[in-house]
Structures are given as structure tokens and as C-alpha cells.
Design a protein that fits this description.
Two copies of one chain form a homodimer. By secondary structure, chain A is α/β, with parallel strands linked by helices. Chain A has twelve helices and twelve strands. In chain A, the strands form three sheets. Chain A has an eight-stranded parallel β-barrel with strand order 1-2-3-6-7-10-11-12, surrounded by seven helices. In chain A, strands 4-5 form a two-stranded antiparallel ribbon. Chain A has a two-stranded antiparallel ribbon with strand order 8-9. Chain A starts with a helix and ends with a helix.
């Protein structure tokens, strides 16, 4: 799947992923009113609202971007209807040819991790039928439980041609509490990075990159530089650009010399662009056009920074 | 919520939680045949099969146990219908007066962790209505992202009277890969244990225990002893008993002197008891009676070990 992601990045010339993390407060009133009048103020309505909002964003931006990253928590908070909207969003984006990175941060032991891997990247058997329950292309994985928790995902990656991004150094302010602590002279995130490299060796793609990528926050550019060296064949998924404070110039060292190797996420910076002063002229009705403009601006900011 | 769990433990005199982690291979054929003839070989059928299986187990065991721990991955692997079966299982168990520990191992940054906390322990607002999407009593939480990822759960615990169990030292063979690594002369799991104590101070219950518990595997009794000292006011949720190799005698040091402070999980050892030679006489039709007997045997094993 990393091969398809790279192909999409080259086609769009944009190492950008749009985080589809809709909150009801991001959604213009006209959508909410329309849906509430149809469904009442129900969980079904909340789910339909975020789905319709996503449809607008995806239709406006699909030709510009290689991938989307729906954050499942934002759907899970609306219960079963919310998760059904997650699944519909995954399907819509795949139909548009986008790579879908399920930001699920799952991770457990043995058979339980295998169940998560089947749910999100693989298939399950029911009698003589086979189903792909959620069907994302990539999933994010939490490494705290060690190789036992990650290996079942690798097995599914190999079997189904999918990929993962392992949390290595997250973008949040307290990520250092455990991740930065020194072990034998090296921070924990470097040890996790070394494991990512090792796990990736099992799942190499023809592109020269492995199916095992890493999440490293844009908010920690120096650590990104070091992790780029440790995991030269892993794609780095970079959150924290935009709303969380990461800038284009912070991103330079996340990329390899070939201009590949990293994909930068922006969520509210794109999908809630219409609420920013900069894009206010679009107005709420044209929220999707504001998102498109924000993608174009992000693309330019990153291009300038990485000189491509 | 820890107060209610302790009350349930005292009432049943059983520091035991039954892991409702159904796999289709645990379910007797008569249930599968019945459901397949009604639903076909669909995801809906798989979900209904595990739900009906759970109903049998819960009805047979509810009077003996204080709590259940459904593992959401086993439901998530059957997509939306599977997650609906998870929700129905949570509701059923709460109606029976059991504490429900959602084994969800969620964890993310800020607003995303808040969404997970709302989904599983709290409520969401849709217009002027409020919903509790999944409605568990406790959730398991992954600490890799640090306090940012845990605090939103604490907020919901305080607001809604719920609790969490933070992964500290997991029961799996490779848990040591990161968790045992030494930082300033102490293993990482001890640092996480210290944070659990600190987080717990914000959420103390009248019982003298905090709403912030810890997951520590029965497979590592020496580490359990040390962690018991570090977190005297945290309940320890102990997986790894039974099928994973933990024995009654391994559990002694997970408990405090008051005989409280730990609750031991068994999943397949109980729910798939009918497949063990020891309980084979029950036969598949009486799988729930086999589970009941396995609970009674586990209760005796633990009582003998902890001398209560």
C-alpha cells in the first residue's frame, strides 16, 4: 500500500494528508439545520452531519491530495451511528482513489491485536463468507505492548497489501513524559524507531519503502531529523502542522533527499478553514472551497520549505 | 465507580472479572446453526452469535461475579454489527448490576482522547439532547502519549463517576520490550505506575481507592509486588490468569493487606471452559454451566491463594 501512497503523492505533487476529524462545531449551520429537521437531535443526526460535511470536503479536495486520515475517535463518540459514518467516509474516499489512513491507534496483545488488524486492514470469515469490516488502507498502531502487539498487524499487511504507522514521537506537549526518557543513553522514541525499522524489514515494498511507517510530530523537528536517520525506509506521518503549531520550515528534515519519505497531516487547519479569519470571505456555505484553498496554501508552504 | 466495584466484590466475595472476549470458535455449533439459518453467513450473524453466547454466560454467572470485561476488538472485527453487539452486551451486563470494564485500550492526544472518553465513559451533546454512546463503567487506557492523553479521561471520570485502568505492565511475552527498559535506574513500568498514583490523587473515592487503576499481568508476579507498593490506592486489574499461564499463587502480592486492591480477569478460561477436558462433561449445550463451574473453581483457587 505504501507504493500506492507514493504514487498518489507523486501524481498530486503534494505530501499532504487531510485529517477528517470533524467536530460538530466545525460544521456550518445550514448542514446541521437540514439534518436535524430530518433526523431530530439524535446520534444518527450527528453521524449524518459529519458524513455530509466530509462529503463536501472530499469532493472539493480529492484531486489535490493523495490521502485522508479519518480520526476514528471523532466518529466513535457518536456511538454506532458515528462508526457507520466512519465506514461510509472510508468507502467514499477509497472510491475517489484516495489512500485512507485510519487513525485508530489500536494495539493489544496477540489474538486481540489480530482482531483489530482484521477489523481495520484485513478480513474476517463468517461461515464461508469473507468480509472487510472497515477496510482502511493504513492504520496507526500504538507500540506500548511491544512486538506481540504489532506483529499481527504485520501479518495482515503482508497478506492484504496494507500498511501501518506506528506511534513513535507524538505531537502533543506531554509526549515526552515517557517517550523522551533516556534508556541506555537513548530516548525511548529512538528505541521504538529502531523497532519500526526492524519490523519494516519484514514488509518491504518495490518502491524501496516499507509498509511500516512512523508517526512523528511536526512539533519536534530535531527529533524528526534523528528519526529520519534511524528509519530511512519508513514513511513518516507528520501530525502537528498548522493548528498544533508546526510550520513548513519545521518539516524539512522529515523528508529524505529524494523528496519522499514523509506525509504531513493537517486536520482542523483544512476542514475548519472557513472559521479562520484568513478564509472568512468564503462564508459557511462555501466551507469546502475554503478547505480547498487551505490545501493549496499548505501545499505551497511545504513546497517552499522542502524546495520541491 | 471504584466504590461500586468494591461493593460488588465484597458482595460476591470474588475478586474476579470475566472477560467477554468471544471468538466464533468458542461458540457451540447449535447457536451458530440457529443464527446462520436466520441471518445467513453475514456480519450481522456473527454479531448475533457472539451476543447470544454472551447472554448465556452472563445469565449463568452474574450472581457469582462483580464485573465483566468485554474486549472491544473481538466485536470490532465484525464491523458495525459487531460494535452494536458490544453495546448490547454492555447494556445487558449493567442491567444485571455488574460493573462493566470496557477493554478498549484507547489513548490519544487532547481533544481526541476527550472524544474517546465521551464515547466510552461519558456523554455527548447533540443539539439539546445528551447521549451516553457506549456507557461502560470503566475503560482501559494506553499511557504512551503521556498525561495529555490520560487527563481527558480523568475529567470524564470526575464528571460522570467513572473509572479507568491504565496499562502499566501488560501480560504478554514481549511486554518487556519497552515497558521493562531502565530509566534512571527504574523500569518504565514503574514510572508509569508513579504517574498512575499521581493521576489517582485527583480522583479519590470514599472507599480509599482512586478511580485510576492499573493493568498489571499475572504473568509478572514480582513486578506486581513492586507496583502494589508504588500504587497502594489503585486497583490492579490483573489479566493473564489461566489460559495465559498465571496461577492463583502468583496473585498474592497484587492484593493489599485488606484483601482488596486487585481484580483478576479470566477470559477464555471461563467462557470457553466447555472446550477444556476438565469441563467436557458439560457438553456444548451446557457451555454456560461449564462457565459457571469454571468461575466457582477460579474463585476457590484465588481464595486459597490469598487466604480469604
Amino acid at each position: 500500500m505504501i507504493g500506492k501512497l507514493i504514487e498518489n503523492i507523486k501524481k498530486t505533487n503534494a505530501p499532504i494528508v487531510v485529517g477528517l476529524d470533524p467536530m460538530l462545531s466545525f460544521v456550518p449551520d445550514h448542514i446541521k439545520k437540514e439534518v436535524f429537521s430530518e433526523y431530530g437531535e439524535t446520534l444518527e443526526a450527528a453521524a449524518e452531519i459529519i458524513y455530509r460535511f466530509n462529503v463536501g470536503i472530499v469532493e472539493a479536495c480529492a484531486d489535490l491530495i493523495p490521502a485522508v486520515k479519518p480520526q476514528i475517535a471523532m466518529y466513535e463518540q457518536f456511538g454506532i451511528p458515528g462508526l457507520a459514518a466512519f465506514k461510509k467516509t472510508v468507502d467514499l474516499c477509497r472510491e475517489k482513489g484516495l489512500c485512507v489512513i485510519g487513525d485508530v491507534k489500536r494495539g493489544d496483545i496477540g489474538s486481540t491485536s489480530a482482531a483489530y488488524a482484521a477489523a481495520h486492514l484485513g478480513t474476517v470469515e463468517v461461515g464461508s463468507n469473507t468480509y472487510a469490516p472497515f477496510g482502511e488502507d493504513f492504520a496507526t498502531v500504538n507500540p506500548y505492548l511491544g512486538s506481540d502487539g504489532v506483529k499481527p498487524f504485520l501479518d495482515v499487511c503482508k497478506k492484504c497489501g496494507k500498511g501501518i504507522f506506528v506511534l513513535v514521537k507524538t505531537s502533543n506537549p506531554s509526549s515526552g513524559e515517557f517517550q523522551d526518557r533516556e534508556i541506555d543513553g537513548k530516548p525511548l522514541y529512538e528505541l521504538v524507531g529502531e523497532k519500526v525499522r526492524e519490523w519494516g524489514e519484514e514488509c518491504m515494498d518495490e518502491s524501496g519503502y516499507s509498509e511500516v511507517g512512523a508517526v512523528v510530530g511536526a512539533t519536534y523537528p530535531e527529533m524528526g531529523k534523528r528519526l529520519r536517520e534511524i528509519m530511512p525506509k519508513s514513511y513518516i506521518l507528520v501530525p502537528g502542522y498548522g493548528a498544533q503549531g508546526g510550520k513548513g520550515k519545521d518539516l524539512v528534515h522529515f523528508f529524505n533527499e529524494d523528496g519522499l519519505g514523509a506525509i504531513v497531516n493537517s486536520s482542523r487547519g483544512i476542514i475548519a478553514a472557513w472559521k479562520q479569519e484568513k478564509y472568512a470571505a468564503f462564508g459557511p456555505e462555501a466551507y469546502a472551497d475554503a478547505a480547498r484553498q487551505a490545501v493549496l496554501d499548505m501545499k505551497e508552504d511545504i513546497s517552499e520549505a522542502i524546495g520541491k
